[in-house]
Amino acid sequence: APLPLKDPGLFREANHVGGRWITARDGATIAVTNPATGALLGHVPSLSRAEIGDAVAAAHAAQAGWRARTAKERAAVLRRLFELMIDNQEDLARIMTAEQGKPLAEARGEILYAASFIEWFAEEAKRVYGDTIPQNVSGRRIIVQKEPIGVFAAITPWNFPTAMITRKAGPGWAAGCTGVIRPADDTPFSALAIAVLAERAGMPPGVCNIVTGDASESGKELCANPLVRKLSFTGSTRVGAILLAQCAPTIKKTSMELGGNAPFIVFDDADLDAAVAGAMASKYRNTGQTCVCANRFLVQDGIYDAFAAKLVEAVRALKVGDGTEDGVTQGPLISRNALGKVQRHVDDAVKRGARVLTGGGGHALGGTFYDPTVLADVPRDADIFSDETFGPVAPLFRFGTEAEAIAMANDTPFGLAGYFYTRDVGRVFRVAEALEVGMVGINEGIISTEVAPFGGVKASGLGREGSKYGIDDYLEIKFLCLGGI
Length: 485
Ligand code: ADP
Fold this sequence. Notes:
Blueprint: E1 15-17, E2 20-22, E3 29-33, E4 40-45, H1 49-68, H2 71-87, H3 89-100, H4 104-124, E5 131-133, E6 141-148, E7 151-155, H5 163-175, E8 179-182, H6 188-200, E9 208-210, H7 215-224, E10 228-234, H8 237-247, E11 253-257, E12 262-266, H9 272-284, E13 294-300, H10 301-316, H11 336-351, E14 355-358, E15 373-376, H12 383-386, E16 393-399, H13 402-410, E17 414-415, E18 417-421, H14 425-434, E19 439-442, E20 457-458, E21 461-462, E22 475-482
Parallel strand pairs: 7-8, 7-10, 8-9, 10-11, 12-13, 12-18, 13-16, 15-16, 18-19
Antiparallel strand pairs: 1-2, 3-4, 5-6, 6-22, 11-21, 14-15, 17-20
Helix pairs in contact: 1-7, 2-4, 2-5, 2-6, 3-4, 3-6, 4-5, 7-8, 9-10
The structure holds adenosine-5'-diphosphate (ADP).
């Protein structure tokens, strides 16, 4: 049955290139299914590498015209796109839940979050300032201007199908760049709906190109094509490393939002209820499938049992099911592969001596639904300590001292987000400064917002998205030296 949309025109089984809706020349397609039901939702084109190259050429052709507009004119188009996203929030959320599985309430929230990047960067477009620098030699003037970098490519994941696009394309478009966006195979319809709205907002042909196709072939073209001047990627560290290597020959600027292994530290002096509420939001949102999800709960001896008991109570109150049903808080995992990894992590921890406090296996609904799980007394050599689970499993590790907690937290190649709960002001700064991460939640379990810089250190990536910093990645600095005055 077709999706119940107020505006069926938002659901497009075609790609958007150079202002036209196209299919693959050879007719190849990719099937998209609903992870909650397994039902077929539709097909999107599987473009060849050459056709991805055509999309880059279309973006390049549109570049001069878009960049020549004033920032205020670009901002007006982005503002209309923001408003259209808000007006169509319900349909966009329904498309997202159908292809991604998250509960409708979360999908509605993601549409607001995604739209906020368009609004924010519409405003930031007008604040791309340069500099004048006192001359080093008399008779000279030294001027610094910022210019759009050129065509950007965005390769985005399935866990936030809309927000990961607007967080990249918003600053790109605002800066005066044109782009080629390649969404994940699992969630292309959310992306294509944005192209429909961008067109309605008056975005000129070729500014917003959205293509679907084989991941590896599209990635090769977007990395190797010399017309692409910047690649922004969100996904796994494994694929990020492949893309960085593929970008090396053409010396591309890159932004990489990669995997995490977030510690969530609960100190003895924490507000227990607040820590449990933060843990629930950080761990179980999107069924544990976010790159900033708490992956390791480090809990101090004195509060360990009380925290475990309260967490289990909260986890048992979660409702697993199809995201379109009322009251559901936990959708399915995205795929069988994802389910397999979650189960392997749980089995491995149990084999090494962890206790299952709740959950521990597939949910009675079957499919890729997983029972929200809490594990206690997990040993540090368990796989779940070093590898991102990306599912609804909270492993509790025990520690004694602050120094031990910091050492455990940093004992990973990753450094995206970290969280901790304490009411000691001195400890707030000691721990926040010691954590090797790009983002710290202190007595907060959800920290993402368009106004703050999102990004990681170490193997979690390069660059920052959102905030006043997020537009820098789409700009080049040009120095003008004017002599003979
Ligand atoms: P996840 O675990 O979130 O699926 P991936 O890194 O596998 O993380 O995927 C993130 C995005 O990268 C998706 O759009 C996926 O299709 C794409 N992708 C996967 N492999 C490659 C590749 N070799 N080249 C380019 N893109 C890829």
